[in-house]
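HOLO CASE FILE
Compound: nicotinamide-adenine-dinucleotide
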Amino acid sequence: MKKLNVAVIGYGFMGRTHSNAFRQAPKFFSLPCEPVLKTVCARNAERGAAFAANWGFEKAVTDWREVVADKEIDLIDIASPNDTHCEIAVAAAKAGKMVMCEKPLGRNAAEARTMVDAVEAAGVPNSVWYNYRRIPAVTLAKQLIDEGRLGRIFHYRAKFLQDWTISADLPQGGEGLWRLDVAVAGSGVTGDLLAHCIDTAMWLNGGIEEVSAVTETFIKQRKHTLTGEVAPVGIDDASLFLARFNNGSLATFEATRYARGHKALYTLEINGEHASIFWDLHDLHRLQWFDHRDEGTLRGWRSLHITDRDHPYMGHWWVPGLQIGYEHSFIHQAADFLIAAGEGKSAQPTFRDGLATDLVTDAVLASAKNRTWEKVG
Ligand SMILES: NC(=O)c1ccc[n+]([C@@H]2O[C@H](COP(=O)([O-])OP(=O)(O)OC[C@H]3O[C@@H](n4cnc5c(N)ncnc54)[C@H](O)[C@@H]3O)[C@@H](O)[C@H]2O)c1
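Model generated. Tokens follow.
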């Protein structure tokens, strides 16, 4: 089988999920090519070498420019913080490499547009790791909506709640805390958490026309890890917005890192004319379904256990009744990308889809700043 040499940039949380995905995908999916974990790029040589040995990469390098210049690399996978995405993706595309990139695509829509231009000019397969699309229950929700089973959609409701930045003693910036440094992250929960909700929402329910948002930075100053100085905090700690979709449905979105007790509570609900759907990341293998066309006396919310062979992706896994987890969404994305790349195509969400999300997050931040409704992009 043809080999496809992969370089992963970054060996943190996402470096692990992606390395695992490329390792597992060929074992469970029939692929047109075999991904080879060729190089991991990490700034710390010792830790990079340990990561490479653990995951079976052939080598570790300390500068991403080395993998861009390496003729043997076919695919550059960007799993490093947001401020690195644009420069690496543009250089990779110019070198003719396929590019996968973590979300948000850019720190803002201007960066994302530069990245779209680069991959489209080079004609290279590309994809953004909005992995929640590939949780089988969420993929099934997409199928049910596309089949028209919900009828006209009236409401979309999404939340992504965490609680890990409540302490005022938590510094900003540096390893593990770059999400609190606006120069690196681009924004706070808007780009980090709401971006996921927006990507799923537009995939399920179409484009967003306009937004009205409020954001808050609860802790205004934090010590910067790299400088040791107390500095203003530039990220949004919480972000809530109302939206109107192109199809006329209304939405509420909420994300915060100040919801005590919640670690990663991503939920979405869609209410249509005939039926409603509810999904919860903490119960990710279930889809709650209400169908008004059910027989009246038996009408009610059903909890569908998404483990049957005819559920999306599940035919590749164990036997009906046995569920899969978070890491599988990345394995599905790696498999879908490699299948599309085998035909020279991109896998959704493409960079252009990633730009669409960045246009919404830009509008959310502008709306919160200007205290106005903002049209998207
Ligand atoms: N899809 C998802 O659900 C999801 C979840 C978490 C993070 N993310 C995204 O993934 C990206 C990485 O986040 P993370 O949680 O893995 O961060 P992390 O802090 O765990 O890891 C980041 C890694 O990048 C490395 N790095 C930083 N600058 C680098 C550079 N110039 N060259 C090479 N390596 C560099 C760091 O050393 C570290 O290994 C971010 O864009 C984030 O938004 C996506």
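CASE NOTES: Residues 133-345+356-375 form a domain with the Dihydrodipicolinate Reductase; domain 2 fold (CATH 3.30.360.10). The first helix runs from residue 13 to 28.
CLOSED: yes
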